[in-house]
Amino acid sequence: MAPPGFTPETWEQFATAGILVVEDALDAAQVARLAAAVRGAPEPTAWNIVETDPRFTVMIDHPAHLGYLYDVYGEMLKLLRSEYFRRPPGQAIRNKWHFDGPRPVPFQVFAEQAPLRIKVGYWLTDLPHGDMGNLTYVPGSHRRPHLSTYHTHEPHPEEVALTVRAGTMTMMWGGLWHRVAENNSDVTRLNMFLEYGPSWIVTSDREHSDPAWLAGLGRTRRILMRDYVHPNHLIKPPAEDVPLFARRADDPGGDADDYGPHVPLELRKRSTWLERHLSS
Ligand SMILES: [Fe+2]
After folding, report:
1. How far does the centroid of ligand 1 lie from the alpha carbon of residue 193, in Å?
2. Ligand 1 centroid, distance to 117 Cα (angstroms)
3. Residue 227 Cα, ligand 1 centroid: separation in angstroms?
4. Quick one: which of 123, 200, 228, 255 has the most CB atoms within 10 Å?
């Protein structure tokens, strides 16, 4: 069964601000485990990290975030990219104002109702104030095609620096304008990101997963990697991968029942929570 996800209230916050902040998503032991993995990794940042360390692998379908993603992308859900960042004190090279991923059709068009990419962030060190290498963003800017400070480090009058305790999870709407603050503290900032979207959006950290690694995954994690040999499976998942989850106890089911008994599960459209929410 899919873990809990959005409520109408949290969706409203996410759709308005372009970011949702969930405190205490991880407990202290989980934070310590992930922080140790990021601290001990060879490079200050890396992609496709779920394949490199079992402590990252378990995050593919972590219940603190996966239900939210399932509510948006449903049976098409795919992990598009995973990465971590270690940002030491005094780090000068950091991200200027930008948005993650592309803006052209269909991204901008879809962004009116729902993002085509959502980036989950786990914050593994306390960020009690700014100037700590914080994620810095302009709330609500995911619907703006342009930002005057694009590709600079200039402060923006509407910017907000993310200040959170370790263990906080954030979800960022693809297209939200953001940058990274300087780290003038004496703490190395640690975090990891997992980006999700529908299976027909290309991955950005791999072409294929390592077959031996993939074979060791459980069903849900394997499906979420969507490492299909036949490209058509990316737009029409194979029968053995449907459904990704059983219905939640409070799931009304909806149109998955609007078929004769001769129509197999993988040929039935099953509305997502978001589809039902937007049409209600
Ligand atoms: Fe970014």
Report:
1. 10
2. 12
3. 25
4. 123
Cα angle, residue 202 at apex, residues 46 and 224 outer, rounded to 5°: 75
Distance (Å) from CA 123 to ligand 1 centroid? 15
| Residue 206 belongs to some domain of the structure | yes
What's the total number of domains in the chain? 1
Mean pLDDT of the residues in the chain: 94
Instruction: Give the CATH number for residue 274.
Output: 2.60.120.620
Nearest to 189 by CA among 171, 166, 168: 166
Task: Look at residue 86 and tell me whether its pLDDT is greater than 90.
Answer: yes
Query: Does residue 34 belong to any structural domain of this protein?
Result: yes
Going from the Cα of 264 to the center of ligand 1, the distance in angstroms, rounded, reads 40
136 closest CA partner among 106, 116, 113, 156: 156
pLDDT of residue 252: 65
pTM given for the model = 0.96
* Tens-place pLDDT, residues 41-69: 999 999 999 999 999 999 999 999 999 99
Residue 178 CA to ligand 1 centre (angstroms): 6
pLDDT in tens, 124-171: 999 999 999 999 999 999 999 899 999 999 999 999 999 999 999 999
